Amino acid sequence: MNNQKQQKPTLTGQRFKTRKRDEKERFDPTQFQESIVQGLNQSGTDLEAVAKFLDASGAKLDYRRYAETLFDILVAGGMLAPGGTLSDDMTRTEFCVFTAQEDLETMQAYAQVFNKLIRRYKYLEKGFEEEMKKLLLFLKGFTESERNKLAMLTGILLANGNISALILSSLFNENLVKEGVSAAFAVKLFKAWINERDINVVAGSLRKVGMDNRLMELFPANKRSCEHFSKYFNDAGLTELSDFARNQQSIGARKELQKELQEQMSRGEPIREIIAYIREEIKKTSITEQSMISIIWTCVMSCVEWNKKEELVTEQAIKHLKQYSPLLKAFTSQGLSELTLLHKIQEYCYDNIHFMKAFQKIVVLLYKADVLSEEAILKWYSEAHVAKGKSVFLEQMKKFVEWLKNAEEETESEEEEAD
Questions:
Q1: What is the mean pLDDT of residues 256-275?
Q2: Which of 5, 58, 390, 394 is the most exposed place for a label (fewest CB within 10 A)?
Q3: Where is the signal peptide (predicted)?
């Protein structure tokens, strides 16, 4: 047995020396700024050269640590103090976004510089988005020309997908809104964005991050109306944005209306009171009767727990719809509204498999209750039906439609005899 004390293992390795000069350049913010400014001064207005310089410098400069410094210099020419003024004690360059020409073509070229930089160094994406949020909060500290350039650049970057529309939340800052800075900036931004992308693509980007319903916040509380928004952006030549906002408000109003209707039905409010409420809402929101009948049908069918058995659900549906037929009748005064209702019934019965065999019985019930006219049913049958389950539903309706046609012919014959 070995009584000697066992030695503990020790870690050994080679220590690498870092040259002091390289260490300073990589970790000193002052040296970092001087290096970027010097490179931009040497590249001048040649943005291809700027892009190449930034690409190469990422290997020796700490972009990750000094992302904010880097983007401040590229946009404003130097480090920005809180509020948007340039720091006096720092080196600056005259070659940046704020000193460039104020036109779309120049801003598109600058957008490409940022695009190449972020594609090359993916870790800069988050820092760049934070920078854009900050710059938008600093708008009051910039000149009108600088704001215009930044607005165009932001619109192009949004169109290219370099930044998310979430950055627009900075524009809802109370001070910026109050002084009209946000709305004026938004005009230039959306013009550049819509110049690059279709309004539907712009709308999709806004919707994706929940900004589609917040555009009214660009204005003070006392001016947050669809009328003011539409006039402001129409006058600025942005009718597409104006129409989009109007449509969004209409969608929002419909959602609120649907929610209120569902609550009234669940409380068992009298039908006449529900009708009165809906008529008031139509006056206020200008919703068409066709849109309204769609909302009513959805509410009527969602306010009850349906039986899962096919043979019982039809009987349940007939009893339920009989109760609400006066409500449906009140908002099917036009032929187009009747067809809209027929489409909604067809789609509902197709989407809810237990109702597949109930379609014909529902239509007959609503015909007898004077909700649906024979003209609307015949038009639906011959040409105006939708694709969902049409073969099944047309077959279900065949005998009833034949009966309607015969009744119509008999009526015409009786009228001729009377003449």
A1: 93
A2: 5
A3: none
Name the residue among 305, 278, 270 with its Cα closest to residue 294. 278
Helix (H, G, I), strand (E, B) or coil at 86: strand
> Looking at this protein, which amino acid is placed at residue 365?
L
Tokens of 416: 């001729």
**DSSP H helical ranges for 138-180:** 144-160, 174-178
Stated as kind and residue range, the H or E segment containing 91 is none
DSSP string, 322-359: HHHHHHHHHT--SHHHHHHHHHHHHHHHHHSGGGTTTH
Per-residue pLDDT tens over the stretch 13-29? 555 454 544 444 444 67
> What is each CA distance from 395 to 114, 356, 377, 411, in whole angstroms?
62, 12, 14, 25
Question: Burial letters for 370-399: b for 16+ Cβ neighbours within 10 Å, e otherwise?
Answer: ebbebebbbbbbeebbeeebeeebbebbee
Contacts of 45 (CB under 8 A, 6+ apart): 95, 100
Q: Which tens digit of pLDDT belongs to each residue from 32-88?
A: 989 999 999 999 999 999 999 999 999 999 999 999 999 999 999 998 988 888 877
- At residue 80, φ and ψ (nearest 5 deg) are -95, 130
CB neighbour list of residue 86: distance below 8 Å, 6 or more residues apart: 76, 77, 78, 79, 80, 92
The answer to pTM > 0.70 is no
Count other Cβ atoms within 10 Å, centred on residue 111.
23
